[in-house]
Amino acid sequence: MTRRLSNTADGPKRSCTLVLAGGAPRSYSPGLRMSTQSPPGFPHRHLLGIEGLSPLDIVALLDRADEAVEISRQVEKKRTTLRGRTQINLFFEPSTRTQSSFELAGKRLGADVMNMSVASSSVKKGETLIDTAATLNAMRPDIIVVRHHQAGAVHLLARKVDCAVVNAGDGAHEHPTQALLDALTIRRNKGRIEGLQVAICGDVLHSRVARSNIILLMALGARVRVIGPSTLLPPGLQRFGVEVFTDMRKGLAGVDIVMMLRLQRERMNGSFVPSVKEYFRYFGLDGDKLSHARADALVMHPGPMNRGVEISSEVADGAQSLIREQVEMGVAVRMAVLEALATHLPNA
Ligand code: CP
Predict the structure, then answer these.
(1) 3-state DSSP helix/strand/coil percent for the chain, to nearest 5?
(2) What is the mean pLDDT of residues 191-207?
(3) How far, in Å, from the CA of 327 to the mean position of ligand 1?
(4) Which residues line ligand 1 (CB under 6 A)?
(5) How far is the CA of 161 from the centre of ligand 1 (A)?
(6) What is the Cα–Cα distance from 216 to 191, expressed in whole angstroms?
(7) Least packed by Cβ within 10 Å: which of 20, 22, 90, 312?
(8) Residues 47-73: pLDDT tens digits?
(9) What would the DSSP string read from start to end of 241-280?
(10) pLDDT of residue 270
(11) pLDDT of residue 346
(12) Atom of ligand 1 nearest to the CA of 302
């Protein structure tokens, strides 16, 4: 099958053709090329979502990230790609993995990284997102990484500043670097993404991780199922081309990858599940439910995990779990994204 997608995001309009199905899994060899040769072009000034990226853009970022994994595993991890550049991490929502990995990624590429603490900033005195953005823009950063609780806030901010903007999660909309790190983890363990059967399970309704993953996995030729209680599945999911299940055991039958989602109670107005105990009984991943997937199925969770709610400790810490590896891939993917965006910075 040949799939033609057209790029409609912030980059120049173009179309690309990529053979997605048939033939052997795409082979790739991780190496140490990062920043030592001209990398393949990345035609976007910002990374605001997976939507708008072509399959070629995604694969190019994954290839760069493979190289960044090798760099991060060396004693000497420093590169000079972002030397002299300023990166601001602006997080309006709590984060452990995303913020710390963007900080490490920027530092490994040589940037000066500032973590802006929203809790102690003038946002608390009523300053708007736009005024905060204009204030930071006046300090001439090169890259701003933003997490915000409102869908679309990062797109708005990108229109108000002169520098590159990376979406580190906006409301229930997108979390593009999470989907990229998930894809990198899958590709390194299964050797391919195309043709795999991936189940995304749980609170899909409130999940930016699910949305970005569905777009990315479908673009690279995976078959995607979503599984959850009907109260936590958005209407019209089928139009994305996914299969929808409300029974974990049926939905997990024969899948290669089980991707669990956090129950996002901070985004819930009202009661979506009868109780946490009931939720775990029917939708929490334990050894019994996992046994319905393929014997070599792998388990993922973006974190933070609620043990005994979405996933049992037995599975989270078990031999099929990739959860720790996802965290390592997070640093590599963020290095790849920062490096790709750096090619568009002035005097790059
Ligand atoms: N997966 C994820 O976004 O984790 P954090 O909220 O800790 O950044």
Answers:
(1) 40, 20, 45
(2) 97
(3) 10
(4) 95-98, 169, 178, 302-304
(5) 25
(6) 16
(7) 22
(8) 999 999 999 999 999 999 999 999 999
(9) T-EEES-HHHHHTT-SEEEE----GGG-SS-SSS-HHHHH
(10) 63
(11) 84
(12) 1
